[in-house]
Amino acid sequence: MSINWAFHHFSQHGRKKTNLDLVESRKTLKAKKKERMGADTPQLPVIYLSDQTLKPGSEKWAEVRSGVRKALEEYGAFEVSYDRVTEELKKSVLDAMIELFELPVEAKQRNVSPKPYMGYSTHNGLSESLGIQDPNVLEKVNEFTQLLRPDCEGNKSMSETIQKFSEKLVELDVTVKRMVIQSFGIENYFDEHLKSLKNYRMRLMKYVAPPDVDAKDADDGANTNLNANADADAGAGDIANGIANVHIDEDVNAKGDVGTGGGDANHNGDDANTGDSASVKSNVDVGTDVNVKASVGADVNVGTIADANANIGTLSSANVGVGDSVKANGGADDEEKKLGLPSHTDKNLLTVLYQYEIDGLEVLTKDEKWIRLKPAHNSFVVIAGDSLYALMNGRLSRPFHRVRVTERKKTRYSIALFSAPDGDYIIEPPKELVDEKHPRLFKPFTYADLMSFYHTEAGRRSRSTLDAYSAVSGA
């Protein structure tokens, strides 16, 4: 036995170190390492929009506007401190969500829509989501609550709560859009086109951690292979609990293509537009252990085209467990199965997301580091989508993001608002944003056409639906 070995193996008092001592020592080293890494961990910028003096044309407005543009140029996303939504209203919305998700499955399955990705959806028994079109319109929210809870006395109050919350998020969405467009000196464009850029949908999401999640999953922050990423339209976000509301034809067979596209699903990324012609006709829950040779169109290209075992039931609104807008060409690997929502970009303009208490949303930086966003007081997350990226001629970023739920025995709730152009609105940058230094990156397209391409074989296989569909050759 060497002297050095003996010195390190015994304590100062001559006691031999036990396994417990070694474990505690490793824990201490791990904590110190984590502390050192924390100092270098990237964070999204925080924008303060709570100032009551923040008015268009003011010096403060110009200052904040500059911060918004810089954040979207560098990250494509930012956290926003926004106190216009009261704690009481946020709590009331959470109570409403809990009440809605506790309804019998057959009641939630009545949340269907002729538009894709707007109905009730589930994913591997880990998450579920509900969708509302035009959530800022009380009549539309009333239709939603009445459908799920016919003649319930509490419907009026619940509808008003959701609508008021949506109104506040719409105000935030419009403020950010105005700041972005003003920052490029094209405010007239904003005023002329605002109405066509305000197509809203909301996704209510609930999910839990996979049963095998462990401490390593919670701490590693590992980067998933970007080739397994995709352009899901989570819008959500969250955006998105890894759920997909996908259109599936009733006669789908073992070798058929299961088309999914856009949505911040649970995948919240709700990115199917009103102009999209697909209609939801059957309620289908597709698990990750799929065993049919089908391409599950969601926007996450996850490896081989795959076996996807589609559990096609006799239900009535399409549920595909992949992630609302997540394009998965096949079965997910072990890492992907642990994600509430695989890595993707949104197809819409902007997504505004709120996480209740439990974190899960992660945003990828340009140097491929994941930023995990912790819920904070008055903190919302704003994420730019492909449509805004194209509209601004690539002058902003549109980040890949995902959802990883790592807290055991806790239920995560989140809510996301997605804004998209009207289906027939032609998306092309204003002439002021195209010059010799900034050549046109994308051919003009409509949101409906982009989403239609999203459903094709080529669209499903593309890492970026937008680039594959509309990129200018050589740009």
TrEMBL record:
Stretch list, region Disordered: 255-279
Coiled-coil intervals: none
> Which keywords are on file for this protein?
Iron, Metal-binding, Oxidoreductase
Q: Where is the Fe2OG dioxygenase domain?
A: 322-421
UniProt-recorded Gene Ontology molecular function terms: metal ion binding; oxidoreductase activity
Pfam families named among the record's database cross-references: 2OG-FeII_Oxy, DIOX_N
Question: Which family does the record assign?
Answer: Belongs to the iron/ascorbate-dependent oxidoreductase family.
Q: What name goes with this protein?
A: Fe2OG dioxygenase domain-containing protein
Q: Which organism is it from?
A: Brassica carinata (Ethiopian mustard)
